[in-house]
Amino acid sequence: MWRPDLLAGRVALVTGASRGIGRAVAEALLQAGADVFVHARRREAADAACAALAGPGTVRALGFDLDDPAAIRAGFAAVQKEAKRLDILVNNAGILREALVEMASQADMDAMWGTNLRGLMIACQYGARLMARAGGGAILNMGSIMGRVGNPGQSVYAATKAGVIGFSLSLAKELGPKGIRVNVVAPGVIETDLIAATPEPVRAALLGRVPLGRFGTPQDVANLIVFLASDLAAYMTGQVIGVDGGLVV
Amino acid sequence: MADRLHELVARSLMIDGATVTDDLRYNSIPEWDSVAHMSLIAELEDAYSVMLETDDIIAMSTVGKIREILRKYDVEA
Ligand SMILES: NC(=O)c1ccc[n+]([C@@H]2O[C@H](COP(=O)([O-])OP(=O)(O)OC[C@H]3O[C@@H](n4cnc5c(N)ncnc54)[C@H](OP(=O)(O)O)[C@@H]3O)[C@@H](O)[C@H]2O)c1
Fold it and tell me: Which of A19, A38, A53, A66 to mutate for ligand 1's pocket (most ligand atoms within 8 Å of CB)?
């Protein structure tokens, strides 16, 4: 049953919560009663986000680069030390570097693989280990509609997001017996810094393909994540759920 | 005096403590398979208050090796 303190007593970690979707997710989890670790690449950015967030739960800042496996381990060790448990992991952080396939640089390929996929995989490894000890938990991985249908100029990005889907579906099967649910949230076009560089004509064309007639807000995505993180979704795992206004790419 | 690490391994793998030596090897007995290995890791992490790197978990192929790797984390097991 829905109630305002849906997530009271749960410990959550949201990666990339300094701005955009991650920040809205952190705030929504907090308002639902969870204690939230707010993560960003730099600790100062996480501190700044924490200062602006309020809710019944507690907020704590974490800074580490997802492109650096040793730093990820240190981050999760801090969670283990400070909270002793983890119930909800939202792997939201991600980067988008657009380029035509013939012009995609190896540096951009490495950066998107390192953050969007390898970093997410390693975070899931450590997160799942903490959750298994407490008897279960919920992992939410940020995919993208582009990982399902592809998009010109986003081949490498879409590949990492398709990778997130395959990885998550496998984890759902592997971790289900440990009480850990794993689902993928696949946003369409959401108004954040991530798409700020997208040229106006492309934006206009995209908007024309959204039946609901607007781009999404970070809150639209956060609402879904609160639901999936909670016991309302206790019987849902291994799903890829779009939040895209019906976008047809 | 009984070895604390041997006791922990025996309890976690649910085997007779007398059979645990530093030479006992992962996957050499049915009780120490990959699923049991992850439970053992969780117990080690709780007992010694550490978070092990994934590569170290993979490298923990014998009880002696576990002891050696724990030293890297400043743990005398
Ligand atoms: N916006 C959309 O239309 C859209 C659509 C589909 C999917 N998504 C996905 O949704 C997620 C969030 O997107 P957004 O639009 O909210 O992006 P955003 O506004 O650009 O924010 C990205 C967040 O991720 C963090 N981050 C990036 N690289 C990192 C790294 N290596 N280590 C640690 N933190 C890192 C950023 O921290 P810093 O402050 O340190 O940079 C920031 O907090 C991404 O996975 C994205 O692919 C977005």
Answer: A19
pTM, full prediction: 0.95
Rounded to two decimals, the ipTM of the complex is: 0.84
Mean pLDDT, rounded, for A221-231: 98
Give the separation between CA A35 and CA B14, rounded to whole angstroms. Answer: 36
B53 close to A (CB below 8 A)? yes
- The enclosing domain of A22 has a CATH number of 3.40.50.720
Q: How many domains does chain A have?
A: 1
Portion of chain A with pLDDT greater than 90, in percent: 93
For the CA of A187, the closest atom of ligand 1 is 6
Contact A220, A190 (CB under 8 A): yes
Max Cα-Cα span within chain B? 32
Question: What does the domain layout of chain B look like in residue ranges?
Answer: 4-72
Let me know: does A122 contact B54? Beta carbons within 8 Å: yes
Is the CB of residue A65 below 6 angstroms from any atom belonging to ligand 1?
yes
Which residues in chain B are closer than 8 Å to A132, comparing Cβ atoms?
38, 42
Please give the structure tokens belonging to residue A146: 């582009």
The two three-digit tokens of residue A72, written as one number: 């990820």
CATH topology of domain B4-72: 1.10.1200
Residues ≥6 apart with Cβ < 8 Å to B64: B22, B23
